[in-house]
Amino acid sequence: MKINNLTLAIIPMFFIACNSDQKASSTSDSTHKTEETASKDPHNAQNSLDWAGTYTGVTPCADCEGIQTELTLNPDMTYILKTNYMGRDTHFPEDRGTFKWDSTGSKVELIGLKDGPNLFFVGENTVRLLDMEGKEVTGPLADHYVLKKIK
Predict the structure, then answer these.
(1) Both 73 and 129 in a single domain?
(2) Cα 32 from Cα 70, distance rounded (Å)
(3) How far apart are CA 86 and CA 139, in angstroms?
(4) Looking at the structure, do residues 86 and 26 belong to the same domain, yes or no?
(5) Residues 53 and 117 in one domain
(6) What share of the chain is helix, strand, coil (3-state, %, to 5)?
(7) Which of 71, 58, 59 lies closest to 122 in space, CA to CA?
(8) 77 and 125 both lie in a single domain
(9) Mean pLDDT, rounded, of the chain
(10) Phi, psi values for residue 35, rounded to 5°
(11) Contacts of 149 (CB under 8 A, 6+ apart)
């Protein structure tokens, strides 16, 4: 009879212990899901900004006065890029093509552009030309890699 009473006392403890482990696991899972959701912010440049339009600026040039740049991003995912090497060119050569957004929805890649960097970070009323590795240009000339929206 003493064995049965001991068994009856242990069984509820077993269920209580299992239940608290499930709650801890459930809490851990929900914390993980919350962190995962936070890292995948649904608001990004692609779906939250009025990014379509024309952006202009003068970017640095190693062997000229600057590169007069005009980039038009169209809602149909096409682009027009015009560049003028100031002091060397008298016209604005044009590159046309399509672009795609990166997985974060914050950068665009100009497809098929062979000469020069083809990645831009999209901000509010600006696009920032990125280096060949897709990283932001830093240093004293960093602000010269920003094109401002004109229309």
Answers:
(1) yes
(2) 43
(3) 23
(4) no
(5) yes
(6) 30, 30, 35
(7) 71
(8) yes
(9) 77
(10) -65, -40
(11) 53, 54, 55, 125, 126, 127
User: So what's the pLDDT on residue 36?
Assistant: 38
133 phi and psi angles, rounded to 5 deg = -95, 0
Shared domain for 52 and 33, answered yes or no, is no
Q: Report how far Cα 29 is from the mean position of its chain's Cα atoms.
A: 26
Which is more confidently placed, 40 or 101? Answer: 101
Residue given tokens 């912010």 in the structure block: 41
Residue 67 tokens read as: 């590169």
Q: CB–CB of 65/87 below 8 Å? A: yes
How many domains are contained in the chain? Answer: 2
At which residue do the structure tokens 């990004």 appear?
44
**CATH label of the domain that carries residue 98:** 2.40.128.640
Distance of alpha carbon 57 from alpha carbon 148, whole angstroms? 6
Regarding beta strands 53-59 and 119-123, do their DSSP bridges make them parallel or antiparallel, or are they unpaired?
unpaired
pTM: 0.69
Residues 28 and 49 in one domain: no
Residue 104 belongs to domain spanning: 45-149
Q: Are strands 146-149 and 126-129 parallel, antiparallel or unpaired?
A: antiparallel
